[in-house]
Amino acid sequence: MSRSTSTYHHGNLRPVLLAAALDLLETQSAAALSLREVARRAGVSHNAPYHHFGDRSGLLAAAGAEAMRQLVAAQRAAYEAEADPRDALVALGVAYVEWAVAHPGAFGVIYDPEICAPGAPSETMAPLIAANEELLSAAIAATDPRPDGTTGRAAELAAREAGAWGSVHGLAALVTAGHLPRAAVRPALESLFPRS
């Protein structure tokens, strides 16, 4: 029995194709990704991806969701490994940048507005985006000693979340493009989130 028949028969072809796409994104951008190459990498017929993803956009959307799941998991693991709230926040940011640098193609897919339209995520991506936002929100709130309901606290926390995400995402873009060394990330984040 051929690999493609066996894989398809056991119902594992979709994750195999998705893994092949993410593997290819390790060395190329989403713009260069072809369904034919994904099928070749997975060892199946060139038509197989169409049966599971519809088209290239469907495959990229699924790859973006899987990449986001991995990014959230990496951040959560780094965050939960630290007891001190400030250290946990820094670790969260470092994990974001490190994951982006290690997986630039997949990271690009997550934030490609043609794949995941801002404000209109897919049913698969929406809960992942929410989980990422909740993680950042919890990390920022944990570094603010004021109790909930303090006047202006919610607005200030929202502003800090936006600033933190923008800073970390900018660091990820700069390091990935080679404009900053990886060693600059932790000191930069420590300066952004000083100890109180």
Automatic annotation (TrEMBL):
The keyword DNA-binding applies. The keyword Metal-binding does not apply. InterPro entries: Homeodomain-like_sf, HTH-type_TetR-like_transc_reg, HTH_TetR, MT1864/Rv1816-like_C, Tet_transcr_reg_TetR-rel_C_sf. Residues 11-71 form the HTH tetR-type domain. Keywords: DNA-binding, Transcription, Transcription regulation. Residues 34-53 bind DNA. This is TetR/AcrR family transcriptional regulator.
